[in-house]
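Help needed: design a sequence for this.
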């Protein structure tokens, strides 16, 4: 008994869409799985090329694209295809697989990563609070100021030298870690320290501290930075630096207080050199 099966029939049942384009890019053959992926009858594709295709996704596929997006259409769900092309005789053979599920999983993973980032409370480079956590932590402190009339000062420190270094620079990253360590060593347990990534900028909130105390701290930090043993590249990141110092005023919320300190810091930087500006 002859058990031979025609090759074309075997190709009709492989778990991938196959299409053969001649040297002019015209479809000369495709198997039913490819037609199913496109939501069409196999015969409807024969004789088509990229220019004559009636939708963008099919145009991309027949044009030799490796990744093809097909929006939902009558007889077809939304799909992503991954295609691999090989030269065969005087044409090209395309192997197309449905990767929609994998693409959806990637999108869900990316969404989860964004949600995780939104929930993060620390700066990964320094371990300090990030901006989101800083603002959340400041609000109860400002509520105390409103209720009891207590003082709170805010210091913004920017490493101006780091602005010239690329984000991937290991020396710049090392300088950020060193500054974070100095801040932890110099401040009280009740003080709040944060880094506002991706900028080389630090924020220090000093509860029950007048501006004179905040200015004194800023000068003390300058002295501590000058005494550090650093590589030349780290020293170049750390110096020059600029400070903006302000105090809570009635009507301030956390964002407004931070914005005022940052504006003062920018003014200090514009004055040139290592500047410290109170406002």
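Sure. Designed sequence:
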């Amino acid at each position: 008994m002859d058990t031979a099966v025609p090759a074309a029939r075997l190709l009709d049942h492989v778990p991938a869409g196959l299409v053969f384009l001649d040297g002019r890019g015209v479809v000369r053959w495709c198997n039913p799985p490819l037609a199913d992926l496109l939501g069409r009858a196999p015969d409807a594709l024969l004789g088509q090329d990229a220019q004559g295709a009636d939708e963008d996704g099919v145009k991309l596929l027949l044009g030799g694209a490796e990744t093809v997006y097909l929006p939902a259409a009558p007889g077809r769900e939304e799909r992503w295809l991954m295609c691999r092309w090989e030269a065969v005789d005087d044409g090209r053979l395309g192997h197309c697989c449905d990767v929609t599920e994998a693409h959806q999983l990637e999108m869900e993973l990316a969404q989860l990563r964004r949600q995780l980032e939104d929930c993060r409370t620390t700066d990964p480079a320094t371990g300090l609070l990030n901006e989101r956590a800083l603002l959340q932590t400041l609000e109860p402190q400002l509520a105390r100021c409103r209720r009891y009339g207590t003082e709170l000062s805010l210091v913004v420190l920017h490493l101006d030298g780091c602005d010239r270094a690329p984000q991937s620079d290991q020396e710049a990253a090392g300088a950020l870690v060193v500054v974070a360590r100095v801040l932890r060593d110099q401040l009280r347990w009740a003080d709040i320290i944060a880094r506002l990534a991706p900028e080389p900028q630090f924020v220090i909130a000093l509860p029950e501290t007048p501006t004179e105390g905040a200015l004194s701290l800023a000068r003390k930090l300058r002295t501590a930075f000058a005494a550090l043993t650093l590589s030349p590249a780290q020293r170049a990141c750390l110096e020059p630096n600029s400070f903006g110092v302000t105090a809570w005023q009635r009507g301030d919320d956390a964002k407004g207080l931070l914005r005022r300190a940052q504006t003062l810091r920018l003014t200090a930087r514009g004055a040139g050199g290592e500047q410290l500006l109170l406002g």
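The mean pLDDT is 87.
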